[in-house]
């Protein structure tokens, strides 16, 4: 798919990116649920495979990567998705997505989707390194990066008696910005904001 087509998909109202700011905690599973629901809501032809099989087969698990999701059209894999909230794992998730696009078994891949989140003083978000890898690769499939930048904040609606929420170390973090960066096979790049905290 071309960059503009990808952006048109990700900017549809079904992808209501601002809702992610109301999900507290590490949010990995919730983000997967958000992406799945938005994709299914776009069309009756859409489906989701949660727990995608590895595109590589062989003895044991060595060298195999599994995407978090396969977003499908007419039951055929169309978008492999990885959700990663630990910065040091960004590059491995990119390799995982590339395995799907490189496999002849997944010839209908439209683009790859990598959601990048952050939080914590030792987990500073930096997607520039991933962009450089993508731009320099001669075989990179079309890909969309979603960047969610968080900041630590004082949550106003938490009371002293609500200690269960306060015990979650990720709870005080809120999303302040969600951007997308898209690069297609022709290296046409689109970078846009999807949501900003008012």
Task: Provide a descriptive summary of the structure in words.
This protein is α/β, with parallel strands linked by helices. The chain is built from five helices and seven strands; from the N terminus they run ααβββαβαβαββ. It has one domain. Helix content is 25%, strand content 27%. A seven-stranded mixed sheet has the order 1-2-3-4-5-6-7, with helices on both faces. The longest helix has 15 residues, at 28-42. The two termini are 32 Å apart. The model has no long low-confidence stretch (mean pLDDT 85).
Give the key terms:
single chain, 198 residues, alpha/beta, 5 helices, 25% helix, globular
List the helices and strands and how they pair.
Blueprint: H1 3-10, H2 28-42, E1 46-50, E2 69-73, E3 76-84, H3 90-102, E4 112-117, H4 128-136, E5 143-152, H5 163-166, E6 173-183, E7 189-196
Parallel strand pairs: 3-4, 4-5
Antiparallel strand pairs: 1-2, 2-3, 5-6, 6-7
Categorize the overall geometry. globular
Q: Spell the H/E element sequence.
A: HHEEEHEHEHEE
Given as residue ranges, the uncertain stretches (5+ residues, pLDDT < 50) are none
Number of helices in the DSSP assignment: 5
Instruction: State the end-to-end distance.
Output: 32 Å
The beta-strand count equals 7
What is the rounded Rg?
17 Å
Biggest beta-sheet profile:
7 strands, mixed
Share of residues in strands: 25-35%
What is the averaged pLDDT score?
85
Count of the separate structural domains: 1
Strand order of the largest sheet: 1-2-3-4-5-6-7
Structural class: alpha/beta
Percent in helix: 10-25%
């Amino acid at each position: 798919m071309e960059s503009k087509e990808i952006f048109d998909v990700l900017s549809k109202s079904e992808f209501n990116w601002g809702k992610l700011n109301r999900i507290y905690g590490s949010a990995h599973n919730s983000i997967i649920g958000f992406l799945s629901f938005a994709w299914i809501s776009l069309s009756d032809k859409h489906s989701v495979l949660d727990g995608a099989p590895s595109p590589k087969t062989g003895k044991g698990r060595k060298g195999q990567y599994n995407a978090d999701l396969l977003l499908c059209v007419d039951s055929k894999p169309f978008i492999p998705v990885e959700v990663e909230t630990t910065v040091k794992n960004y590059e491995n998730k990119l390799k995982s997505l590339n395995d799907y696009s490189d496999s002849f078994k997944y010839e209908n891949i439209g683009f790859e989707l990598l959601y990048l989140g952050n939080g914590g003083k030792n987990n500073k978000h930096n997607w520039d390194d991933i962009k450089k890898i993508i731009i320099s690769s001669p075989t990179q499939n079309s890909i969309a990066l979603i960047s969610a930048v968080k900041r630590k904040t004082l949550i106003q609606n938490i009371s002293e008696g609500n200690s269960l929420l306060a015990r979650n170390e990720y709870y005080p973090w809120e999303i302040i910005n969600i951007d997308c960066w898209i690069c297609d096979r022709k290296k046409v790049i689109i970078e846009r904001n999807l949501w900003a905290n008012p």
